[in-house]
Amino acid sequence: MNTRLVASVLSAVALASSLSACASRSTVGTVGGAALGGAAGHAVSGGSTLGTVGGAAVGGVIGNKVSK
């Protein structure tokens, strides 16, 4: 497995975990979705910036809608 991918996923999990203690459910859903979407976009696009940002944007929207 690619080292950058593992680092990205672990960073996303750490960020989502740290925010879950001090934010509303909607915020946690949005941030968690963006973090996981960014990691997924990075993996699918082969590490391109556009894929990572696009994945984060889509993941954030989905996370926000699911958490409501």
UniProtKB/TrEMBL annotation:
Pfam families: Rick_17kDa_Anti. InterPro entries: Gly_zipper_2TM_dom. Transmembrane segments: none annotated. Residues 28-66 form the Glycine zipper 2TM domain. Keywords: Signal. Residues 1-23 form the signal peptide. This is Glycine zipper 2TM domain-containing protein. It comes from Noviherbaspirillum aridicola.
